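User: Could you go from structure to sequence for me? I need the amino acid at each position, not a summary. Structure tokens:
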């Protein structure tokens, strides 16, 4: 498959063109191919293709995309190269298939080639890729037209470098026809005119070279009203003077190699360059006179004013001051370039300016300060070309001597700093590309950079990342700024809460402290109250364009749409941290794509990474984007919340299968296709996931209810019941269950209501809230009867009976156990009947009605044996043995206990073995058979120790109470 954009838009499959439809459909394809392998959101695609969106644009776009999907389906591949995702559309392009990528790669090779011959080969191949004007046969909107202009500008730049390289190789005569034709098509292209003049001169046509200048000058004056630029005028003067311009023996300029830049050439020859062509007089002729550079009256001192009182950040200040040699020394700094990064409002500029004032005495040749406007409201980032102009002027270079080309300016800047000892502060940087031309080369100067994002591409810079202030420093900052307002005695705790509400962010602390200082009627508690309301917190921290919300808004506005989409929807997540899988679900992305975007947001200091794969929003950023998320399209918000809940619900289901593998459960609806729930290889891993998200579960249930996803709201807590019980986290469990119960009632889902009432009752029982447990069990019985769910009615009756039993209300306990027994016998459920008989027998035993207890245990044992439930049969025998012991029937107790021990051993019930051994030991102790008792109890203790069961201590007590030889001397396995 070949995709061609550098000319008429075309797609070829195995050398044969594919029909692409009309101009608008071709424009859609071109827009997608210009963002190949990246998701293009629908709105972005509409804006790229149409200048004025008609009402039918979206409908037409869907039609074009459907046609293109058919066109881009390749035999043998599983799906079309064009896919529509949840958030947009994506065309898959493999290496070598797109002509734009081929041109860019060849052009880069040419610019990085080690010599001009190699550069020419690569440039020639790059230009051969073009078949005409980019997107020649489409009608682009303004945004797509800008992409076309960028491609055309890149081609012209490469063509210019190609011509320069050929001139440097002496191909003057061969180039003349091509240069003439190019200038005829582009008569105002000054650099091209200069190249033609030089080629004519070197070909012995000096008169024609001068004529080219006159014609070009006339066209510029007539059409633009301007004179030719300095470079072209200087070339004209040298030709008039009889000088012989030559191409210097250096390779084609590369932006990353200082020694090969035009500025470096200017330093060697003493002349300015014309896009890589230097001019120098032939041997024996004096150079053209040039005015000497003007010098400033004194060294520049551009640092802004330092803060009156600076506190905290001792470690960061030490890092900025580290490695500075004495002012009189000749050794270079150990850290000549330090890049300070951090989130908006974290105090980067304040820190660096303060450090710069302390460093200033060590840099006697001056201090430069430049705001690069990387993140300034309403101001575009400062172009390196303009930045270098300002820096060179500050260094005393007259306007007439400042080179026109950015590369030349950068070279001159490095030259001027090479033998000086200066401090340069580049504040508010936008990117590595903006900063790189402004950095000094060799020498003894130091550069401090601030940026909101990590400048990882500046390999020569030492990174220093700023986090929010530690709690004690945040309190100190608030106190100092709010001074002289006194704080009442004992206000430390409240002040600590205030700074936490400010997120310990210096910008927020300063705004809050100033408001507090300037309002004498306010008390600290009043400020705390105002900040505690998340809905108005950002309003309290507003200071116009310098407020917290405005600062955050600027950071978000600069993000690419996919990153902004992801970050905003993170505001829907109710937890403090979010894992990559949940973030992917929220944004409707694959996990690898979400992981990449999250890491880029970390680099931009819009997220913090708490552990690999887990991310955290600053509390003020969370408050800011939560408002944006809830203001988004309601349908998109609801879809995002559904995906998030699908992720957590199906992950909780996987946990529940590990905790309660035999539990009967209704199947969940399948998750959204883009959602990737977590899987677990062990119960330990699953419980660790639950422990991390424990504080999120209630919020997720509430989020589901808020967005009308009521089934999710009640299913989530029921899938977490095993976790809540295993970890005894019933405070959170009950809160989640109450949300789920309300959701089930809104749905009118009575079976769900019954299940949730039982779970709630069990949770209240675990918290010893007996009256609430009784109320929930009673309601569960009523609902279960209404819907005819006898099993749920029986379970609820048993639960209710056990609560009464724990309170000593044995009459009520017996009544509800009999009720459960009647239900299960009516259902002909033998297993449940045996369970109910066992509970009823234990209640009778607590009452002292031992004969009735024996009858219950006997029936339960016989029925369990009949249905093959030997596990339960062994437990019923243990209860029979203990009841016989209580009746003083030691022979029957011993015989039954031995049967229980054998049966538990056969089925592998280790806990049952320990119970049987303990029962036998106690029976034998009562019979005076001390040695046999000691043996059984010692064996019980060993089993319980192996199981890690705390009942082993009780058995130890029984052993210690036996007469005769101490247990520790009888059984070495029991020694501590």
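Assistant: Here is the amino acid at each position, in order:
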């Amino acid at each position: 498959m070949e995709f061609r954009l550098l000319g008429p838009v075309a797609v070829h499959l195995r050398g044969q063109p594919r029909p692409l439809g009309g101009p608008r459909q071709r424009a859609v394809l071109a827009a997608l191919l210009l963002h190949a392998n990246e998701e293009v959101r629908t709105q972005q695609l509409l804006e790229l293709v149409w200048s004025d969106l008609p009402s039918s644009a979206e409908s037409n776009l869907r039609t074009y995309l459907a046609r293109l999907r058919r066109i881009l389906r390749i035999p043998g591949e599983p799906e079309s190269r064009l896919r529509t995702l949840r958030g947009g559309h994506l065309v898959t392009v493999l290496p070598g298939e797109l002509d734009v990528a081929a041109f860019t790669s060849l052009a880069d090779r040419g610019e990085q080639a080690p010599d001009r011959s190699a550069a020419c080969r690569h440039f020639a191949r790059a230009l051969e890729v073009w078949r005409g004007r980019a997107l020649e046969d489409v009608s682009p909107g303004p945004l797509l037209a800008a992409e076309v202009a960028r491609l055309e500008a890149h081609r012209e730049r490469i063509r210019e470098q190609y011509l320069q390289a050929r001139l440097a190789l002496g191909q003057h005569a061969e180039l003349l026809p091509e240069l003439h034709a190019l200038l005829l098509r582009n008569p105002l292209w000054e650099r091209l005119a200069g190249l033609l003049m030089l080629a004519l001169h070197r070909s012995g046509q000096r008169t024609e070279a001068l004529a080219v200048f006159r014609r070009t000058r006339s066209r510029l004056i007539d059409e633009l009203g301007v004179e030719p630029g300095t470079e072209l005028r200087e070339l004209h003067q040298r030709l008039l003077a009889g000088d012989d311009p030559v191409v210097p023996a250096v390779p084609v300029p590369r932006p990353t190699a200082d020694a090969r830049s035009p500025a470096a050439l200017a330093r060697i020859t003493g002349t300015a360059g014309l896009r890589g062509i230097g001019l120098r007089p032939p041997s024996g002729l004096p150079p053209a006179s040039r005015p000497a550079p003007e010098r400033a009256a004194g060294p520049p001192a551009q640092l802004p004013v330092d803060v009156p009182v600076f506190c905290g950040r001792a470690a960061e200040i030490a890092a900025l001051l580290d490695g500075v040699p004495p002012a009189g020394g000749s050794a270079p700094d150990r850290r000549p370039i330090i890049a300070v990064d951090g989130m908006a409002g974290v105090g980067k500029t304040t820190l660096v300016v303060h450090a710069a004032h302390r460093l200033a005495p060590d840099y006697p040749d001056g201090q430069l300060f430049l705001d690069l406007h990387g993140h300034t409201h309403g101001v575009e980032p400062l172009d390196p070309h303009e930045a270098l102009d300002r820096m060179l002027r500050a260094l005393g270079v007259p306007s007439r001597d400042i080179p026109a080309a950015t590369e030349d300016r950068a070279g001159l800047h490095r030259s001027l700093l090479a033998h000086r000892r200066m401090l340069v502060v580049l504040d508010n940087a936008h990117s590595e590309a903006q900063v790189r031309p402004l950095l000094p080369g060799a020498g003894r100067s130091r550069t401090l950079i601030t940026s909101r994002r990590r400048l990882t591409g500046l390999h020569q810079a030492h990174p220093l990342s700023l986090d929010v202030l530690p709690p004690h420093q945040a309190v100190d900052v608030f106190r100092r700024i709010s001074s002289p307002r006194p704080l009442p005695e004992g206000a430390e705790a409240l002040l600590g809460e205030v700074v936490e509400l400010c997120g310990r962010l210096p910008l927020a602390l300063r705004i809050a402290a100033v408001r507090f200082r300037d309002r004498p009627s306010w008390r600290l508690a009043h400020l705390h109250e105002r900040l505690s309301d998340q809905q108005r917190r950002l309003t309290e921290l507003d200071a116009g364009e310098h407020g917290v919300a405005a600062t955050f808004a600027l950071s978000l506005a600069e993000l690419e749409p996919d990153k902004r989409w992801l970050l905003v929807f993170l505001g829907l997540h109710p937890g403090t941290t979010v894992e990559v899988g949940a973030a992917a679900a929220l944004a409707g992305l694959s996990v690898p794509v979400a992981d990449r975007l999250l890491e880029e947001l970390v680099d931009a200091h819009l997220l913090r990474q708490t552990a690999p794969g887990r991310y955290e929003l600053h509390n003020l950023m969370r408050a800011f984007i939560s408002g944006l998320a809830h203001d988004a399209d309601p349908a998109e918000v609801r879809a995002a919340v559904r995906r998030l809940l699908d992720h957590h619900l199906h992950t909780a289901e996987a946990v529940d299968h590990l905790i309660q593998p035999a539990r009967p459960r209704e199947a969940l609806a399948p998750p959204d296709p883009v959602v990737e729930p977590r899987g677990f290889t062990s119960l330990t891993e699953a419980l660790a996931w639950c422990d991390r998200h424990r504080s999120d579960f209630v919020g997720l249930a509430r989020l589901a209810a808020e967005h009308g996803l009521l089934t999710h709201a009640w299913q989530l807590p029921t899938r977490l019941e095993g976790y809540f019980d295993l970890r005894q986290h019933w405070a959170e469990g009950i809160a989640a269950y109450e949300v789920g119960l309300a959701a089930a009632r809104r749905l009118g889902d009575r079976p769900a209501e019954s299940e949730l009432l039982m779970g709630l009752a069990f949770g209240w029982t675990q918290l010893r809230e007996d009256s609430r447990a009784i109320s929930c069990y009673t309601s569960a019985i009523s609902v279960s009867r209404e819907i005819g769910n006898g099993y749920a009615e029986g379970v609820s009756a048993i639960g209710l009976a056990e609560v009464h039993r724990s309170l000593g209300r044995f009459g009520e306990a017996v009544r509800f156990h009999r009720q459960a027994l009647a239900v299960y016998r009516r259902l002909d459920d033998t297993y449940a009947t045996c369970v109910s008989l066992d509970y009823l027998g234990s209640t009778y035993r607590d009452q002292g009605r031992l004969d009735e207890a024996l009858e219950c245990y006997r029936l339960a044992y016989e029925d369990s044996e009949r249905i093959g439930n030997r596990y339960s049969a062994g437990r019923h025998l243990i209860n029979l043995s203990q009841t016989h012991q209580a009746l003083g029937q030691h022979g029957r107790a011993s015989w039954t206990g031995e049967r229980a021990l054998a049966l538990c051993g056969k089925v592998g019930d280790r806990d049952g073995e320990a119970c049987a051994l303990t029962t036998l030991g106690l029976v034998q102790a009562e019979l005076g058979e001390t040695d046999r008792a000691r043996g059984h109890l010692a064996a019980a203790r060993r089993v319980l120790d192996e199981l890690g069961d705390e009942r082993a201590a009780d058995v130890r007590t029984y052993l210690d109470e036996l007469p005769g030889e101490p247990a520790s001397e009888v059984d070495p396995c029991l020694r501590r």
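One structural detail worth keeping in mind: The longest strand covers residues 423-429.
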